[in-house]
Amino acid sequence: MNSAVIAILGLTVFVLGYRFYSNYLGRHVFGIDEDLITPAHALRDDKDFMPTRRHVLFGHHYASIAGAAPILGPAIAVIWGWVPAVLWVVFGSVFIGAVHDFGSLVVSVHHRGESIGKISERLLSPRARTLFLSIIFLLIFMVIPVFAMAIAKLFVHYPGAVIPINFEIIVAVAIGYYVKRTGGRLLLPSLLALAALYAMILIGWQNPVSISQLLPWLVQLFGPLGSAAAEEQAWVVILMVYGFIAATLPVWVLLQPRDFINSHQLVLALGVIYLGIFVAQRTIVAPALNLEPISKGSWYPLLFVTIACGAISGFHALVSSGTTSKQLDQLRDSRVIGYGGMLGEGTLALAATLAVSAGFASREDWLTHYHSWEAAAGSSILAFITGSATFLTPLGIPESLAMVFMSVVVISFAATSLDTAFRLQCYILGEFGQSVNFRPLANRRRIQAGAVMLMGLLITLFNKEQALWPLFGSTNQLVGALALLVISIWVMQKGRNYWFTLVPMIFIAIMTTWALTSEIGFYYRDGNYLLLVIAVIVMIFEGWILYEGWQAFSRNRRGPVAVAEGAGS
């Protein structure tokens, strides 16, 4: 099968989904009210709440959700064949993931920009809020190390990315201060920064920098792990310190300007990849179906949690209701940012699927890489870099430079997701602090960020990426299902058709519960008791919240219920 044909078919479905399905949802399910005063205006503080131009906010939102996860998931799940992966990415994005993101953003805007977990208190019960926040906390507890380890691995394997990535951070901060002081727009400075970034990629390609050169004493601390593993752990420490600093800064200093730069970078990178797909016309060498049992288990239901981001991701609900809703200028912008942003991530996931399906020279090479779950999960990000580079070489880009270019793209977005995860976890800890009336945790951002940093270091020191990914995927999908539950109840209270959100919720809840049951068995067999305990807790909390949701549906069956909401309520 020609990879270009699959790309065209997938992109066509995305376009049709946005043109028709999102329009229907906005009009008849979510009831977009263009006159609503958004929290960005009603609660403006220029720190978290700040009205932001649509294209700038789209850049932040897109960069925050389109991290390494929509690459990692498909690059692992192709072990079951490229057909199931492509179908789940394309149709899951259109009918489940984008609906979830769109709805999370709209509901949060109607509730003063509150997080989806806090909103569950109003729509389900006070117990549901505590349970939901606990699951979200556990999800981000795994998100941070997953992204940190992915970035660290890329820095070690592609040291040419070190200079351009650090350059981007410095320039983003400079742009943030420039725009804040002058009141100028981000567009021109961000485009100039992007051009400069590509110049730095050439410099980094010719002058690779390793952590052993920069901080040899830090690498020596992890010496017993072996050279590559020691370097990765050293990078993880640096990334955790970076996350602490980024989480304590106002959004305009680093988050907004860098996300805007990254949004341009992602659009350009995707354009280059798809251009390469159409020019190279590479044949897919991966099997269409590979349903033979592997060490991790059957594709059904594990496919639906392995590909989380890229089809549906509960993490997106945290972004939509955690940072994006606080910056939304007008509610009508929610369609392009929420639904359109998810389709953008689906486009990235589709490219990743094709890269690891058609980027190998032969079926034998593919089978060598995908001979086991451990092999696929341990080097999935590297498979994407190598595979996507094969699409770029027909465009006249040297293969080694193409790899550095793609590693910079992936690291940029993984770092953005890392920043957002740190900030979201601080919000969650703050809400926990408020619920137990512990003022330092409720109000002190540095204390919150410090706790997040220490927890991230703890889990990365004792777990491998391939062990974390399945539980991350299951918990991520569970949060997505629970967010759809909250959205469905809100839609029901408005007297609208809630089946467009409830049916996806039921499907994801079933797949997640099934997958979690399998994961509990794997962790018990392997003696990984930390992840075993987390998986059991998550499953218990899931059942409890679903019960609370059933009770909420029962209360609302008699008709729409009036609820106090709105940006100023």
Molecular structure report:
The chain is an all-alpha fold and 569 residues long. It has one domain: Sodium/glucose cotransporter. Helices cover 76% and strands 0% of the residues. The chain has 25 helices and no strands. Helix 7 crosses helix 12 (227-247) and helix 13 runs antiparallel to helix 20. The chain is globular, with a radius of gyration of 22 Å. The model has no long low-confidence stretch (mean pLDDT 85).
Can you summarize this structure?
The chain is mainly α.
Order of helices and strands: HHHHHHHHHHHHHHHHHHHHHHHHH
* Assembly state of the chains shown: single chain
Taken together, the total number of domains comes to: 1
Rg (C-alpha, Å): 22 Å
What profile does the largest beta sheet have? Answer: none
- Please provide the count of β strands: 0
* Poorly predicted parts: none
- Helix segment tally: 25
Calculate the mean pLDDT score and round it.
85
Q: Distance N terminus to C terminus?
A: 55 Å
- The chain-level structural class is mainly alpha
Predict the CATH topology.
Sodium/glucose cotransporter
What would you say the CATH architecture is? Up-down Bundle
Question: Which overall shape is indicated by the principal axes computed on the Cα atoms?
Answer: globular
